[in-house]
Amino acid sequence: MPLQTAVIIGATGLIGSYAVSELLNDDAFGEVIVLVRREFGLKHAKLKARVVDFNDMEDYKNKLGTGTAIFSCIGTTQKKVKGDRAAYRKIDFDITVNAAKLGKDLGFNTFLFVSAIGANAKAGNFYLKLKGEVEDAVAAVGLNSVHIFQPSMLLGNRNEKRFGESVMQGVMKGISFSLAGKLRKYRPVEALTVAKAMVVAAKNNIAGKHVYVYDEIIALAKSNKLPGYSPV
Q: What is this structure's pTM?
């Protein structure tokens, strides 16, 4: 079976950095390409780092190149964009949706990206509304295989310090056991687990649109194949 080539956007983030590591250590992938805004420090025989201007569609297209799967783990925070919602949208919406559109034109088969639990284009909350709009826009592109991951709070150590998030991680870990039934999807999940699940989904290359929340993410990360999920 031919080795896959994966392209990762958001490789320096919490999930993205884990995804890079998982892909580099997976024999199903012969090449891992990371698109970054600045030089990428990690070196590996399978790894290619390409500095890209995400605002320049021609450069973006050229740097994507050819491959089989695109992972979008890109994201920002209100603090990083200083409350500028237009700047926030440019990162969370434009970069991911443009990757899907360009990927379709370039012949990529599989597109995987990180959304959020509760994402809905009709939501009153800015963040959830934006994530829902991204989901709808990517689904409309027409890629053969689309995988949307909707984690709740992510657990893991970030390179950047987020004091409030660290506190909330502790709180959510403490009450996680009480989130049962319909509330299970709000349980916090390790970023590494999400990354593992994304890699498994990419390897299986199942046609259609698939959405994963807590239980599906956990099951997928522990499996080497998609456990019978139906397209939605």
A: 0.89
